[in-house]
Each structure stands twice: as C-alpha cells, then as structure tokens.
Design goal:
355 residues, alpha/beta, TIM Barrel, 9 strands, binds coproporphyrinogen I, Uroporphyrinogen_deCOase, EC 4.1.1.37, cytoplasm
Length: 355
C-alpha cells in the first residue's frame, strides 16, 4: 500500500474501477462484503467497550477499521466502516445497534403520522463520516474506497418491523394495504439515502454500493411496483458523480434484471445463481444494453469447508465471471463473524493469481 499526502489519487488503472467500466483489468479485483468487522481480532480489540453507534460517528475509528482488512488481505477495495442505519440515526431517529441482534428502532413507523414525524437529515451530524473519508483517501493509495447506503426497502423493513425480521410481515402488510403511506415512507428514506451517498461522494469515495439486502423477499412484480421507483431515484441522483454504482441484494435471482434497470453499473449476485447464468438472465432481459458487469459470488459458508473446497469454488467462480464484461470477485453475502481471516487472505491471493 502506498501512502500519498495531499494529491488526489490517480485510480485510472485501479482493477475495481476498470472492471466496473466493463474493461479488462490487470488482475481480477476482489473485496469482501463485511471485510471489516468481527472476523478480525484487531477489530474486536479496537471495538472493546465502544458501542457500534459510537464507532460509526468517530472519524479516526471509522478510518482505522476501514483500513484493517486492506492491510491484511491485499484487497482491491476498502469499504467504508459504517452501517445502513447511520443516516437514520443522523436524522435523529431513536435507534441502536444491539450486539448479537442488529438495528433496533424504539418507535417503529407504521402509519401516515409516523411517516410525517420523520425528521430531516442533519448533514452536520455526519461530518465524522466525511472526515473519515478524507483521512482514508490520503492513505489508500491505489486501493479504491467504496461508500455505501441501505436501499429504501431494506431500511423500511427495519423501521417498520422495529428490528431484524425473518419474514418482513409487517413491512409487506403495510406495502400491500396502504400503498400511499408506503410510498411516502420509501420516498422519505430515499431522500436520506441519497443525501448520505452524496456526502460520501463529495468527500471522495470512488464507488458506491446500494445494499438492498432483503429485496429478495419480494416477487419481481411487487419489487417493480413498490420498490423499484425509489431505488431508481436514489441511483439516478448519483449518476452525476460518475462513480460506479453497485446494486446488491440477497436471494435476488429473479430480480437481477430489475435491479440493473434501476440504475446499476455493477450487479451484485448472491451464491444461489452461477455468475454465467446471472449474465445470461441480464442479457436476455436487456439485449440492447451493454454487456453486464457482475460482482460475487462465493458462498460465505464455503470458507469453513477447508482449502481444497474453497480453491475449487473460487476457480469455478472466476471462470464463470468471464461471461460478464467485467467481474468483481466477492462473497455472495457478508463475511460471517467466525470466519478464519487467513482463509480470506488466501482467497484474495488466489483470485489475483488466476489468469
Ligand atoms: O458490534 C458489531 O460489530 C456489530 C456488527 C456490525 C458491523 C461490523 C453491524 C450490525 N454492522 C456492521 C458494519 C457494517 N454494516 C458494514 C461494514 C463495512 C464492511 O462491509 O466491512 C456494512 C457494509 C454494513 C451494512 C449493513 N448493516 C447491511 C447491509 C449488508 C448486509 O450484510 O446485508 C445490513 C442489512 C445491516 C444491518 C445490520 N447491522 C448490524 C447487523 C448485525 C445487521 C444485520 C441484522 C439483520 O440480520 O437484520
């Protein structure tokens, strides 16, 4: 890793950005969703006694945690250490990230009055995030920095359910029974998400990822009617910046063309669908569009299966990724907390070595 001081980095040849634009980079870029976090002992040590939400509003801590996996794994991208609920908290919504559970919202939003009561986002509160990005781009050299935000549907699920949910039943009930309130709520969240992403882009991130982690809970028809317009508005609002927009969800095999159409430059794919099949579906849905670029898709659980299995799966995925105009190697979802980080380092090395 090179260290520059004040000069804006020249990332024209950064493998992640080359692949994202549909060109062939010198090596296949690789990073891991949730690469910063509990799989790393140095992360656990730094976070000792520091609540998640405190860490997310401390510029030095954000920068240090973001850099930890870069130092270890020789990945081609850092992802900003933050959380999808950070802009909601910055807006003054009473929520916390509870260890072992995830985001918990004190007063779930389930009606028109709740939507009307949602506060404006206070960008000043997010200054530590912008400051952290400033610190990071000085230190990352040729490693790209990915900013991110939660997509309107996934954030709506936390706000409506009040916390993590397996079936998203209250979310779907509101969506189907009161579309007016639903669209007002998603519109409001789309504003938060857009402002959070714009702040990150202004501060200097090189790419952004929109996490619609739970969108796979929807049929394509419902996705298009209730979610697509809001995610599309977010992604369109970022088009001015010229940074690649990655759009990811879990269990989205049936939604991939719609998620691309929403305005993605790179389509994230989970492990349920081989990348060549994902490319085939994307091409069939939009024959006139440029050849798609994909990101993914090693099953995070495979990292527990021993090196021979891991190596076989990585080689298969790199080969299947050749069907796309560009391939960013990643897991199909986040690193699981019990993962041996040494295996991640080896995966990055292997991906880079395959020609
Ligand atoms: O104390 C801790 O360490 C809490 C664990 C943790 C961490 C490390 C949470 C709570 N969030 C994070 C950081 C985080 N969250 C990152 C860091 C950057 C990186 O990737 O290295 C990112 C990208 C997120 C995004 C996020 N938060 C998503 C989208 C990505 C995904 O995994 O699908 C979602 C759904 C969340 C909500 C959330 N935050 C935390 C948890 C445990 C959860 C999931 C809860 C649930 O199952 O609903």
């Amino acid at each position: 890793m090179t260290t520059t001081s004040t000069v804006r980095r020249d990332l024209v040849n950064a493998p992640l950005l080359v692949a994202a634009s549909g060109q062939t980079p010198a090596r296949t870029p690789v990073w891991f969703m949730r690469q910063a976090g509990r799989s790393l002992p140095e992360y656990r040590k730094l976070r000792e006694g520091v609540p998640m939400m405190q860490a997310c509003f401390d510029a030095e801590m954000i920068a240090e945690i973001t850099l930890q996996p870069v130092r270890r794994h020789d990945v081609d991208a850092a992802i900003l250490f933050s959380d999808i609920v950070v802009p909601l908290r910055a807006a003054g919504i009473d929520l916390d990230i509870v260890p072992g559970t995830g985001p918990v919202v004190a007063q779930p939003v389930r009606d028109q009055a709740g939507v009307r009561a949602l506060p404006e986002l206070d960008l000043d509160v997010l200054k530590p995030v912008a400051d952290a990005i400033g610190l990071l781009i000085d230190q990352l050299g040729e490693v790209a920095l990915i900013g991110f935000a939660g997509a309107p549907f996934t954030l709506a699920s936390y706000l409506i359910e009040g916390g993590p949910s397996r079936n998203h039943e209250r979310t779907k009930a509101l969506m189907k029974s009161d579309p007016e309130t639903w669209h007002a709520l998603l519109g409001r969240i789309a504003d938060y998400t857009t402002e959070f992403l714009k702040l990150q882009v202004s501060a200097g991130v090189d790419a952004i990822q929109l996490f619609d982690s739970w969108a796979g809970a929807l049929s394509e028809k419902d996705y298009r009617e209730y979610v697509f317009p809001h995610s599309q508005r977010v992604l369109a609002a970022l088009a001015y910046a010229g940074v690649p927009r990655i759009h990811f969800g879990v269990g989205t095999a049936e939604l991939l063309p719609a998620m691309r159409e929403a305005g993605a430059d790179v389509v994230g794919v989970d492990w349920r669908l081989p990348l060549d099949e994902a490319v085939r579906r994307l091409e069939a849905a939009a024959p006139a569009a440029p050849k798609p670029v994909v990101q993914g898709n090693l099953d995070p659980a495979v990292l527990f299966a021993g090196w021979d299995v891991v190596e076989r799966e990585v080689r298969r995925i790199v080969a299947e990724g050749k069907a796309a105009a560009g391939h960013v190697f990643n897991l199909g979802h986040g690193v699981l907390p019990e993962t041996d980080p040494a295996v991640l380092t080896r995966v990055a090395e292997l991906v880079h070595s395959i020609r």
